[in-house]
Each structure stands twice: as C-alpha cells, then as structure tokens.
Description:
46% helix; single chain; alpha+beta
Amino acid sequence: MDANDKALLRAVDKTVDRRKERDVEETFGKRLLKVSQGRLLSRKFTSPSRRADPDRIILCSNKEGRVAFVEMKRSGEEPTPAQAKKHRELRRMGYLVLVCAGDEQIDATVNELIDYFLWDD
C-alpha cells in the first residue's frame, strides 16, 4: 500500500467518523426535543476560531439565561485534551458540560439535562 492509498483510507475513515457522530447528534436532538416536550432545544454550537468548543448548546424555554453544553462523540471515544480543557474552563464558569459518547449514552444525557433544567410548571 503506497502513501496515496493510506491517505485515501484516512480520508474515508474520517468521513465515516463524522457521519457516525452526526447521526448520534441527530438522534440526540430529536430525543431531547421529544422528552422535554419542546422545552429544551439543542443547537449546533460552532466557533470557527475555537475547535475545542462543545458541539451542542442546550437552551431552555423557561429558565432565563441558563444554558448547558454537550460534547458529542462516537461510541467509545473521549474528548481530546483540548476539548477536556475547554470543558473544565466552562464548568469553572458555572456551566453544565456533558459528554454523550454514542447512542447508548443518549438517554442518560437527556435525563441529566432534564434534571438540570428541572422546571416547576
């Protein structure tokens, strides 16, 4: 296998990885919306100059100013060192930061968000 073949395989692997993480994100967003009865919204959080920021920002319709962040990962993956550092920084500022690694963690992550944003009505 020459260098071109190896580069092509790495590119294919990265495409598959992104697709799988994107699928987890999509399922997570739908589940969160359904379980929270539309009161919690998951939005893609992108910061072009800051690659380590979490993937999702969670907003609540009745908790003024309260937000949470969710880092989405494929099953078995963990945040990079830069992401872990960013998560610690956000937690020190008082934000909830969760990591959802694969479909098997979606329900637990959604439940933790429901508890965090627990509404009284």
